[in-house]
Amino acid sequence: MQARFIINNEVIERDIDPDMTLQKFLRKEGYYSVKCGCETSNCGACTVLLDGKPVLSCSTLAARTAGHQIETLEGLQKEAEEIGAYVADEGADQCGFCNPGYIITMIALFRQNEDPDDQTIREWLAGNLCRCTGYEGQIRGFIKYRDARRAG
Ligand code: FES
Ligand code: FES
Q: Where do the domains of the chain lie?
């Protein structure tokens, strides 16, 4: 089927299989920040923003996203680098495979809530798994990012 996609504000037309997932489609198009950790909606590594909301691209049909705003970290470099630096400073950046999913989820949270409390940050990250760390480093990094924003 022929469909029109808006990815990071760029409009493209593609002929796609109706059963292709958004994750496979985005990686085929070169958006390699979109990872595949499980393909079963369990790890959060494939998270992208769809009309500003985080979704698991491994369980979203590409065809259903036609005409909607899709965002990946490739289009969010400035915010990603800023937030990612706090995570790295906490030593939570090990293999890095989970980072894109974490960071894009946090970008969505901070867009929606400029000053989330610690519990809200933890709740938003409940669907993001990391096989290398104990999670606390990432959480500390995001809390420090929030604190730096508070301090202006
Ligand atoms: S690859 Fe989508 S949730 Fe793991
Ligand atoms: S740092 Fe390796 S999976 Fe999270």
A: 2-74, 76-151
| Residue in the block written with tokens 């969010």 | 76
109 lines ligand 1 (CB under 6 A): no
Cα–Cα distances in angstroms (integers) from residue 123 to residues 40, 72, 105, 117, in the given order? 20, 21, 11, 10
Topology of domain 76-151, CATH: DNA polymerase; domain 1 (1.10.150)
Mutate to test the pocket of ligand 2, among 94, 128, 142 (most ligand atoms within 8 A of CB): 94
**CATH domain 2-74 topology:** Ubiquitin-like (UB roll) (3.10.20)
Q: What is the pLDDT of residues 65-119, one digit of tens each?
A: 999 999 999 999 999 999 999 999 998 888 999 999 999 999 999 999 999 999 9
What percent of the chain shows pLDDT beyond 70? 100
Q: Can you name the residues that pair with 11 across neighbouring β-strands? A: 6
Residue 127 DSSP label: T
Ligand 1 atom with least separation from CA of 56: 2
